[in-house]
Design goal:
The complex is a heterodimer of chains A (387) and B (193). In chain A, 33% of the residues lie in helices and 24% in strands. With 387 residues, chain A is of the alpha+beta class. Chain A folds into 2 domains: 8-166 and 305-377, Rossmann fold (3-Layer(aba) Sandwich), CATH 3.40.50; 172-277, no CATH class. In chain A, helix 3 packs across helix 4 and helix 7 runs antiparallel to helix 8. Chain B is of the alpha/beta class. The chains are: A alpha+beta (387), B alpha/beta (193).
Chain lengths: 387, 193
């Protein structure tokens, strides 16, 4: 039996946007849940940056992008550097990034069968040291090839395979998905133009050209979800563009501008599985625009995708959480005056007991308060009512 | 003193402890609290309550029955409050409800709960307390009609509480089996049996 593909098992993010320090223990399919403004999206941004930096092809994020990202998110205290670290399979990796300066990277290979906790501690220690000893520790990692400010082959000289061949962030926007798009050339990878799903029409056109079986499968899955639909209808409005539309069973064609948001979201999710593979797929609020009955199917699709690439999503939907295991969910909060923090749902107090009474989404809404999530993360105070 | 956590369908069962937890008060009792005081005066301390509908159940298409998960959730709330659960859910004329609720409670290890499932609904128990016979065979509409004939307005929690406070266990109709069992089980739970 082949070994499962490596995935990010442990990630440490420090001084990134609103995050002071978040340590995440991730699974192949993982959801971040928590109050608004708790830092979930920032974690996704950090993971995207991480995936981009660690992409050995350098395709998903260029060196300038790293610097731009560092400048964009800033740090809580400008004097501090942004630090990222992760463990994936048999690789550990740490980076320190400072706007304007060359980022420092290092990676190491833990023992063949790494003790996750011990290796995580090592990453923590290295990144946690801001003094010269910490820098020395970081430098003691086998250095990677640096090109300007970005490593071009971070996975080193010994042929170690990257567990993170790039990342893709998806924050779908119906207006972006509706817009006609320039046809993809044969040399261009199958990918949306941006995180909003722009270029959906061109991607579907390219799938139809390059892999008709995949195109037929998308059509079949879409019409299963929307029985009034006969299939996708692509048109060429000129200037080398493709426009998206849908043909109804009754024969009418509706252009994408008139298509329902739910249909566009569903189509984009079906297309995701045929895009150029990346190591890390990041999805913001996958439940958007979907009927509750479709959410289970969407999570099943993401779970299938997670067999080939790690999928991390940010969600506010208890129905999404209902489809996941406790260790596949991290609760992200940002207590007043402190940076964001994360705790796996399965590590919350009384989880085993609560999970007998609730499914995970129900458990979350039964104990969350939308601010501190105190009862979820700390447990209910037994004498909460005065005698 | 036994710590007690209440679960019921609304103000009739919970008094001012119904509604969203933020708005609950202990000012006025409902049927459950009145039952506790009637069976074992001064022996129970209510530490919290939850209205049945606030126990979250989320499943597209529904479960085999809507009671199993909610009963387990109510028990968990009580357990976290270190309390005995007093659960009262109307049968609403459906004979399957009581077995569903009781089996849901029985499925939870070490469950500390007293379960009442008024048949056909709580109004039926009230008219039994007021002396009516064969109340469990009534339809829900018949129970409402009898309540009105006794001069009690619908959803008059105060009158319900008064009916409990004034009842004489010796004169309860023998066929009010569910109601008798409710009082007996509460008495056992509070050490007054």
């Amino acid at each position: 039996m082949s070994e499962p593909l490596p995935h990010l098992e442990y990630v440490l993010v420090e001084h990134f946007g609103c995050i002071e320090r978040v340590a995440l223990t991730l699974t192949r399919l993982h959801a971040l849940v928590g109050p608004n403004d708790s830092g979930k999206s920032t974690v996704l941004d950090a993971l995207r940056l991480l995936g981009g930096i660690a992409d050995p092809t350098g395709r998903s994020l260029a060196g300038a992008d790293v610097q731009r990202a560092v400048r964009r998110v800033g740090t809580p205290r400008q004097a501090e550097s942004l630090r990222l670290g992760f463990l994936a399979g048999r690789l550990g990796w740490a980076a320190r990034l400072e706007p304007g300066n060359s980022p420092q990277f290092g990676w190491h290979r833990p023992t063949p069968r790494p003790d996750l906790a011990a290796e995580a501690q090592r990453i923590d220690q290295i990144l946690g040291r801001t003094d010269s000893a910490g820098d020395a520790a970081l430098r003691s990692f086998p250095r990677t090839h640096l090109s300007g400010s970005i490593p071009t082959a971070i996975w080193g000289d010994d042929g170690a395979a990257s567990p993170l061949p790039g990342s893709r962030l998806v924050r779908l926007d119906p207006d972006a998905m509706r817009a006609p798009a320039q046809i993809l050339t044969d040399a261009e990878p199958l990918a949306f133009r941006d995180e909003r799903g722009a270029g959906l029409a061109a991607v579907i056109d390219a799938i139809a050209t390059r892999d008709h079986e995949a195109y037929s499968a998308i059509n079949r899955q879409l019409t299963d979800l929307f029985p009034a639909l006969k299939g996708i209808h692509l048109t060429s409005p000129g200037n080398g563009a493709k426009a998206l539309g849908f043909r109804l069973v009754a024969g009418t064609v509706i252009p994408a501008e008139q298509a329902s948001e739910g249909m566009l979201y569903a189509l984009a999710f079906l297309v995701l599985q045929h895009l150029e593979p990346v190591g890390l797929l990041l999805v913001e609020e996958p439940e958007n625009g979907l009927h509750p009955a479709r959410i289970r199917e969407m999570v099943e699709l993401l779970r299938r995708l997670s067999e080939r690439q790690q999928v991390v999503m940010a969600t506010h939907s208890p129905l999404v959480l209902n489809e996941l295991e406790g260790e596949e969910i991290s609760v992200v909060t940002r207590p007043e005056g402190r940076g964001s923090r994360a705790m796996r749902l399965s590590d919350t107090p009384r989880y085993a007991e609560r999970a007998r009474a609730y499914r995970n989404g129900e458990l979350w809404i039964a104990y969350c308060d939308g601010v501190t999530e105190h009862d979820l993360l700390e447990g209910i105070q037994r004498d909460w009512e005065a005698p | 003193m036994t710590r007690v956590f209440l679960c019921g369908e609304g103000p009739n069962e919970l008094g001012s402890r119904s509604g969203h937890p933020s708005y609950q008060t202990g000012e006025t009792p409902g049927f459950i609290e009145a039952s506790l005081e009637h069976v074992a005066p001064g022996r129970a301390r209510v530490v919290g309550a939850v209205q049945w509908k606030y126990l979250p159940r989320l499943e597209v298409g529904g479960r085999a029955n809507p009671y199993t998960g909610r009963a387990a959730a109510a028990l968990q709330r009580a357990r976290e409050g270190g309390a005995h659960l007093c659960l009262l859910v109307d049968a609403d004329g459906d004979a399957r409800v009581e077995p569903w609720v009781r089996s849901a409670v029985a499925a939870v290890p070490d469950a500390a709960a007293t379960v009442g499932v008024p048949a056909p609904k709580l109004e039926g128990w009230i008219v039994a307390l007021l002396g009516d016979k064969r109340t469990e065979a009534m339809s829900p509409a018949r129970a409402d009609a009898r309540l009105a004939e006794h001069g009690v307005k619908p959803k008059d929690t105060e009158a319900f509480v008064e009916a409990v406070a004034n009842c004489d266990p010796a004169t309860l109709p023998p066929d009010a089996a569910g109601l008798r069992r409710w009082f007996a089980e509460l008495g056992d739970a509070l050490g007054a049996g």
